[in-house]
Amino acid sequence: MAGKAELDMEQLGATIGAAISDGIASIAPPKEIGYGHPEYQARLKDEGVFDEFVVPVYQNGKQAQARGLKPETLQGVGALRPGVYQVLGGKVEVALDQKGRVHLFYPHAKIEDRMRFSPDFDSLVAALLAAQGPATTH
C-alpha cells in the first residue's frame, strides 16, 4: 500500500506541475516584435513600405508614393516620355524636368474634375505607356 501511495503522489505532482506550467503560459505577455526585428522588417517589405520608383514621380506637384504599386508601374514610370495624352477618359500631360523627375499633370482643381478623372496610379501609368507606343531609338 505504501508503494501505491508514492505512485499517486508522483502522478499528483506531475499533474500539478503541468497545470502550473499551462497557467503560466496562458498569462504570459504576447511576444512583442519591434521595428528592428527581422519578422517585422520582412512584413514591411512584403507590404511595399520600402518600394521606390526608378525616378522620382510627381502628380500635380505632389510627390507620388510608391507603396503598394505593381513592379511594372515602379519600373514603367522611368520609360514615360513627355507629351499630352488622352487616356482613361481624361487628358494627362507628362513632363520631365532637368533632374530627370517625371511630372504628371491633369485637371484636379475642382471636385468635378476629380470625380470625372480619378484613375488608380497603376492603370494610369499603364495607359500612358500604351498611349505613347513603343520607344524609338535614333
Tell me the number of helical segments per DSSP (H or I, 4 or more residues long). Answer: 5
Mean pLDDT figure: 84
Helix content class: 40-55%
List the helices and strands in order.
HHEEHEEEHH
Query: Which structural class do you get from the secondary structure elements?
Result: alpha+beta
Q: Which segments are poorly predicted (pLDDT under 50) over 5 or more consecutive residues? A: none
Neighbour order of strands in the largest sheet: 2-1-5-4-3
Mass-distribution shape: elongated
N→C terminal distance: 102 Å
- Biggest β-sheet: count, sense, barrel? 5 strands, mixed
Which percent band covers the strand fraction? 15-25%
Radius of gyration: 30 Å
- How many runs of DSSP E, i.e. beta strands? 5
Relevant terms:
138 residues; alpha+beta; 15% strand; five-stranded mixed β-sheet; single chain
